[in-house]
UniProtKB/TrEMBL annotation:
Location of this chain's protein in the cell: Membrane
Bilayer disposition of the protein: Multi-pass membrane protein
Keyword Oxidoreductase attached: no
Species this protein is from: Equus przewalskii
Source species, domain of life: Eukaryota
Protein name: Solute carrier family 25 member 44 isoform X1
Length: 314
């Protein structure tokens, strides 16, 4: 009899692709709505000099809420929704790469490492221009700016809204940097997210496997998968946060050199400056990763080809 503690991984060839993409887009959108405020807070914490504006994640949350209301926590969100495209490209690349690597290695760690890094490379090539625009929108505060650009107001003194702000930021980026401005920080993004993704998947499967031996046999797999996701996210966040701080500064402040940005950060704030925004990152990653893991594993189960449903044990 099969040991229920053995976690069966649903691979690409086991999926009904139509169901997978339809359910996937809906799931991704729900996740983005729930975690976006913490993404905005993390970005502002990483860009500010020292503690000139905010003293931490909770302080930033309260101040933004008081100054701009709930909408202030969603600045740049409409633009950011275009990353739904990169999200689908990410999961497709991940699953296809796992299938390809399986021809050369049966090690789940190897498959996860290579597939995670490859998926992030493809996704970041699509995401970076969207991130550059949305991050500048995140930096907009009433009456002042935190980044290089500021959205102009209309005749009544009110800021233009929605996609009007987006077009204004895009024009300013084009005037200042040309098309290359939309890929500012691209290398820094690759150096941040490829390792993050490559590390997350192996740790996710590692933690899930270890928890499966600690939990009773009757415990549903989804329980320890939901626990292992945040553990893997916290591990990856700690390892890659220094590069994430540098990436954010390069993109928002218009810097051209990763090395010079690193040196300036070290000179101004010391080693602890490399950990800025880490708590916000972990706070946003914990609930979002639980939702992602439960959602993604459930998505794959719902998308399982009908003839394979009875052969699986959860």
């Amino acid at each position: 009899m099969e040991d229920k503690r053995n976690i069966q991984i649903i691979e690409w060839e086991h999926l009904d692709k139509k169901k997978f993409y339809v359910f996937g887009v809906a799931m991704t959108m729900m996740i983005r709505v729930s975690v976006y405020p913490f993404t905005l807070i993390r970005t502002r914490l990483q860009v500010q000099k020292g503690k000139s504006l905010y003293h931490g994640t909770f302080d930033a949350f309260i101040k933004i809420l008081r100054a701009d209301g709930v909408t202030g926590l969603y600045r740049g969100f409409l633009v950011n929704t275009f990353t739904l495209i990169s999200g689908q490209c990410y999961v497709t690349t991940y699953e296809l790469t796992r299938k390809f690597v399986a021809d050369y290695s049966q090690s789940n760690t190897v498959k996860s490492l290579v597939a995670g890094g490859s998926a992030s490379l493809v996704a970041q090539s699509i995401t970076v221009p969207i991130d550059v625009v949305s991050q500048h929108l995140m930096m907009q505060r009433k009456g002042e700016k935190m980044g290089r650009f500021q959205v102009r107001g209309n005749a009544e003194g009110q800021g233009v809204v929605a996609f009007g702000q987006t077009k204004d930021i895009i024009r300013q980026i084009l005037r200042a940097d040309g098309v290359r401005g939309f890929y500012r920080g691209y290398v820094a993004s690759l150096l941040t997210y490829i390792p993050n993704s490559a590390v997350w998947w192996p740790f996710y499967h590692f933690y899930a496997e270890q928890l499966s031996y600690l939990c009773p046999k009757e415990c549903p797999h989804i329980v320890f998968q939901a626990i292992s996701g945040p553990l893997a996210a916290a591990t990856a966040s700690i390892l890659t946060n220094p590069m994430d701080v540098i990436r954010t500064r390069v993109q928002v402040e218009g810097k051209n050199s990763i090395i010079l940005t690193f040196r300036q950060l070290m000179a101004e704030e010391g080693p602890w400056g490399l950990m800025k925004g880490l708590s916000a990152r972990i706070i946003s990653a914990t609930p979002s990763t639980i939702v992602i893991v439960v959602g993604y594993e459930s998505l794959k189960k719902l998308s399982l080809r009908p003839e394979l449903v009875d052969s699986r044990h959860w």
